[in-house]
What we know:
Elements: H1 10-20, E1 27-30, E2 38-39, E3 43-44, E4 54-55, E5 59-62, E6 72-80, E7 95-98, E8 110-113, E9 123-126, E10 136-137, E11 148-150, H2 158-166, E12 171-175, E13 179-184, E14 189-190, E15 201-202, H3 205-215, E16 219-222, H4 230-241, E17 246-250, H5 260-265, E18 271-275, E19 278-279, E20 283-289, E21 294-299, H6 303-321, E22 332-336, E23 340-341, E24 347-354, E25 359-362, H7 371-375, E26 379-383, E27 389-390, E28 395-400
Parallel strand pairs: 6-7, 13-16, 13-17, 14-15, 17-21, 19-24, 22-25
Antiparallel strand pairs: 1-12, 2-12, 3-11, 4-10, 5-7, 5-8, 6-9, 18-20, 20-21, 22-28, 23-27, 24-25, 24-26, 26-28
Amino acid sequence: MSATSSMRSVDDHLADILRTVRVLAPLELDVEQVLGTTLAEEIVSPVALPPFDNSAMDGYAVRAKDVGRVPVTLPVLGDVAAGGGGRFTVVPGTVTRIMTGAPMPEGADAVVPVEWTDGGTEQVTINRPVPEGHAIRRAGEDVVPGEVVLPTGTLIGPAQLGILAGVGRRRVLVRPRPRVVVISTGAELAEPGTPLAPGQIWESNSYTLVAAVREAGSEGYRAGVVADDARLFLDQLDAQLLRADVVITSGGVSMGAYEPVKEALAPLGTVRFDRVAMQPGMPQGFGVVGEDQTPIFALPGNPVSSFVSFMVFVRPALRKMRGLPAGPTPTVRAVTTSPLRSPEGRRSYLRAVLADDGSVAPVRGQGSHQLAALATANALIVVPEDATELPEGATVEVIRL
Ligand SMILES: Nc1nc2c(c(=O)[nH]1)N[C@H]1C(S)=C(S)[C@@H](COP(=O)(O)OP(=O)(O)OC[C@H]3O[C@@H](n4cnc5c(N)ncnc54)[C@H](O)[C@@H]3O)O[C@H]1N2
Ligand code: MOO
């Protein structure tokens, strides 16, 4: 039996995760809260946009016929400002001043920009002719009443938020951003900013993971660090389940004498622990816990391993929960600048720098504990299971970080 025969493939593990996690139920939220959520309704505009014909420029509302021969001097009836202002009828031989966004007055059929005039307020001399319709934004040219401006499933970014507000929506039915709680475990972990006792290190995984959660469009929360005690871990988990759509743990899943996460979760029968054929990130736990069958990712404690595991397994799951197309984390192609090595039968994710010219170079320090080396990388080179060596100049798939 080979060393890798008892391992589960990355693809099988991910498929199991994506089968298990569910799209979050829709929720009605205030428009202020919906950035990064996914629409669970179709947004139909109740009005036309623009709602009325209005000026695209600061200038004068005219009848185009009156300015056919220039220069011409005409009386100014008054001002039409955006948001109301005077109501005028532009009869032949007259004009009004008009500001950008102000409704076109009756009778006018074009706007002359102020730059083409002497800027007069009682009367104005116009120096250039304009065709009918010049600098007028027509009612409904962006949206007609009853038009679908955003389909169900749209991811709300800044522009989408703008059109929601632009069609007057205050409440919106969306798939919310998943709430993800990160619990780090380990007796050796001290909070950054506190002194280290002998044998301790500063806790970093929860910072990395919460940041990665947020970057992946979800809400990340750090729960307090739990020492190596299965009972304490279960208490913390119970408390956190109240606010979590997903739980991520780091540490305590390998083969040591003190593996609180595995000890606590394995007996439940709803979380499986596997050795996944990847490097880093081999020990993995995944399943559901609690009344609501909340998905839980028990990631390995090595800092690089937990981060890579997030990119490969958690990120796609969060996409599915948000109602977005979910599958393996997307890759781009690149060409290696040096030979690469990878363990047989395992998919490697080598920390690397991807350059603008499409070349990719592994960083120095590929150990699962080498957090500083990870911090110099902007990509992961994916070396397939069946490759143990790749020459310089090989084309590889790369995950951008
Ligand atoms: N006999 C074996 N030992 C190990 C195996 C194995 O198969 N047999 N697998 C190794 C691999 S691969 C990994 S990955 C790690 C996973 O270990 P755990 O998930 O149990 O994690 P810990 O033992 O708690 O920690 C591992 C390492 O990472 C540091 N760590 C943990 N949490 C944090 C944190 N929040 N911030 C910063 N650093 C953290 C911890 O101090 C350890 O150095 O197991 C190998 N061993
Ligand atoms: O598989 Mo562990 O995740 O390398 O260091």
